[in-house]
Amino acid sequence: MSDAFQPPPLPANEPVFDYAPGSPERVSLQRRLAEMWGEEIEMPLVIGGEDVRTGRTVPIVAPHDTHHRLGTAHWAGPAELDRAVEAARAAWPEWSSLPWTERAAVFLRAAELLSGPWRDTLNAATMLGQSKTAHQAEIDSAAELCDFWRFNVAYAARLYQEQPISSPGTWNRMEYRPLEGFVLAITPFNFTSIAGNLPSAPALMGCTVVWKPSESAALSAHYLMRLWQEAGLPAGVINLVHGPGAELAPVALAQPEFSGLHFTGSTAVFRGLWSQVGENLGRYRNFPRLVGETGGKDFIVAHASADPDALLAAIVRGSFEYQGQKCSAASRVFVPDSLWARLRDRLAEEVAAIPMGDVADFRNFMGAVINRSAFERHAEAIGEARTRSGHRVLVGGGTDDQRGWFVQPTVVVTEDPTSRLLREELFGPIVTVMAYPEREYEATLDLIDRSVPYGLTGAVFAHDRAAIRAAFERLRYAAGNFYINDKPTGAVVGQQPFGGARASGTDDKAGSMWNLARWVAPRAIKETFVPPRDYRYPFMA
Ligand code: NAD
Asked: Each residue of 24-61: pLDDT tens digit?
């Protein structure tokens, strides 16, 4: 082991391929898509480095073609969850005492493999299993995930260099101990990069992990695990258990060694998990770290001075990319009535023309929504917009589940500032617009701030600096990621650390030093070179 401090490679954002016609990356991805479409694979649990088949299996289908089976996932029960905790415990002594450079090298190698030979596989799995277009998969399962792994290594190095001062005759030091016990990572369906980041961030800091991915993202989770194995992740450091969260999480949360929860998903689920932790608090050896990034009701607010073209592009991209299933997606838009009168028809025209369908057909901008319960939730919201007074469906509103779970990109217009559609997270391709009287800009900012419990992302469009300033001040807690003349989605690791407060989570900023700091229990060490030998102080003379 070397004594030198060895700075890791300087991270840079992974380049994003455009998959334009004729490009070699397009040919290669299409080939892999076709191959994986033709396969039907088994997705076992991976516990202590071993594949575990439970026989309790569920079919995994493509959301845009629900008759097509991509494979079968094995679901864990309480016994397998216990085994996963045991495997994490067994791996802890060695992993937690490795030099940090050894752990970092595993994830840097994973990033390199993902950037190269594994790129098509992870992108194709995300496209087929989660119905992302090539572009949406590329910015998620390739680019963002490479960024998480590379930037986290650099942030870890920065954290380790954070050291106290020493007064004469002493040496003070900080050691960043991995949390004792195991971390439970519970991940959502909508980003493969988040599924890859939540278990790996604590693992990079020396923790061992039990990872429960979303039931609706089993295919990409399966390949992620295989990628870590190829990168050289030792057995038991991350243990993959598929299955229903409501059944498995309580088993993990009842263990005395439970030391942290790394969660992304809905607010209600995180609140439920937090309560369970509270109930179990007396059992734990440590006060567990609870990190959760949760729901949002993200806004775009336009001032009368806004550029209408930029606003229109931001509404379309911000609301409908990945079928609006981004935690950051715009779902409530506030436009001054004067500007709305000029924008409305153009918006309706653009949205009506958005191509939607099979994501393997690269002409499509949108695929299907993730599962039947999402489909039904969206259909219900659209039904409400059609029937409730003060609401109108401007464009879209169609739903079709014949082949897959398709929901048309939908713009609802309402005059009712208390509308449910302006307050609740729908997590789909539905955006609700309210045209406000131009003179009431500041009152509208207050409405945006107070009418929802969330605080995740938001954007202001304005040319007028005073209007930008007013939004910046009045919406200070309305968004943890605030955009000026840009859409509220598309945060990039290293550039816009992501996360929100209020009901949107603990705001620990995924892919940042603040997040990594949650997975260590620092130890302060003071060494006195020549200690005093008499207890009496001079003032006592
Ligand atoms: P979800 O809450 O339904 O599921 C998330 C995870 O929790 C899944 O693995 C699921 O199996 C598990 N789970 C569900 N019920 C559980 C229970 N009772 N106990 C324990 N675990 C349980 O969320 P989703 O549909 O996968 O993702 C969409 C949600 O995630 C949205 O609310 C979105 O805003 C949020 N999200 C937030 C961010 C962010 O950074 N703030 C990022 C992505 C997604």
From this structure: 999 999 999 999 999 999 999 999 999 999 999 999 99
pTM over 0.90: yes
373 and 316 belong to one structural domain: yes
Catalytic-residue membership of 327: yes
Region 104-132: what's the mean pLDDT?
A: 98
Domain count, the chain: 2
- Which burial class, exposed, middle or buried, applies to 226 when counting CB atoms under 10 A from its CB (0-12, 13-18, 19+)? middle
CA of 249 to the centre of ligand 1 (A): 13
**Max Cα-Cα span within the chain:** 92
Do residues 251 and 303 share a domain? no
Asked whether residue 265 falls in the same domain as residue 322, the answer is no
5 located within any domain: no
pLDDT at 2 over 90: no
Which range marks the domain in which residue 392 is found? Answer: 298-484
Report residues whose beta carbon is within 6 angstroms of any ligand 1 atom. Answer: 186-191, 194, 212-215, 245-246, 249, 264-266, 269, 272-273, 293-296, 327, 425, 427, 456, 498-499, 504-505
What average pLDDT does range 206-214 have in this prediction?
99
Hey, whose CA ends up nearest to atom 40 of ligand 1? 293
